[in-house]
UniProtKB/TrEMBL annotation:
Pfam families (alphabetical): Abhydrolase_1 (PF00561)
Species classification: Bacteria, Bacillati, Bacillota, Bacilli, Bacillales
Record gene name: metXA
Recorded superkingdom: Bacteria
Active site, renumbered: S144, D300, H333
Subunit structure: Homodimer.
Name of the protein in its database record: Homoserine O-acetyltransferase
Catalytic activity: L-homoserine + acetyl-CoA = O-acetyl-L-homoserine + CoA
Leading EC class: transferase
Amino acid sequence: MTLQLVEIKDTVSIGSFELECGEILPDVTLAYEKVGRVGTDQVILVCHALTGDAHAVGNESDPGWWDGLIGAGKYIDLSQYTVITMNVLGGCGGSTGPASTDPRTGKPYGSRFPKVTIRDMVRAQYEALLKLGIHRLKAVIGGSMGGMLALEFAVMYPDFMEKCIPIATAASLSAMSMAYNTIGRRAIVSDPDWQGGDYYPSKGPVRGLSIARMIGMVTYRTDLLFEERFSRQNPENAREMVDSYLHYQGRKLVNRFDANTYLRFLDAMDHHDLGRGRGGVEEAVRKIHAEVLTIGIEEDIYFPVWQQRDFHQICLKKGVKSVYHEFSSDYGHDAFLVEFNRFGPQIHRFLNGG
């Protein structure tokens, strides 16, 4: 019997939406991808990272960015589950964001698009799920910025999911990671084509965004990987190879991403704190009802592994059923997008009660 899978790429409107900052977006739409077994009520929500989008799974002809983790017979098995991924509020992958048309003016929001928080993103996705008729999740999972969303989901809507899987993330960003973000932000706003954020319909500060991406790539990988890929393979041309690689990564991003969205997301990460307004992180964790699997990467520079270890210990202290998995990878932070065999089996066992 052939397994029947559904694949939907669409948008869902949640109407008028008030942000934490008090501003109101009159008409919010979120883009989503839904892939999985026909008829199942076992739904997993995937939350994407900084430069991700809703295309996490895809299909054989157009695989998504988490195709190595999710699929029929894979670690998150589409023969068991339906997986939904949403492009978050403020994004540039089909959801309402700075490049969207403001219905009040008929022009792109640009610099007028308001500050968006991680909690805003989570609440928008929650409302979208309800619109789609989904009132309970098997799990919510995400890495990096997506992990911040996953943790917020577990605190804001504790009875909405059975399990929570935050990967390479933390309750708040470290000061060093804020420093990396500051450099990337400066690169963008210093570009003459930035124009204060009102650069549409042009592509805007592509040079600044490219440099911001180069900075990001250095923090997402490790010195061991750079040494192996460039210095050891071709020591005479190592500098040229590094330069070419980073410029290539920068060009790739500017061809698919918007600088205003990049800045809004950096700001959301910089200011995120799971314990804000809740009496601290420990009191926030006390609200979690879901079982938690926290995954850390030993060589992660952007979200150092001590943050995941600490979060796991807080969960145990506050009576949250928590499992911790840590692995080593020369890919560093980006290992959650690459080395699925290092953490996929643990996710599979966790989802299936092992």
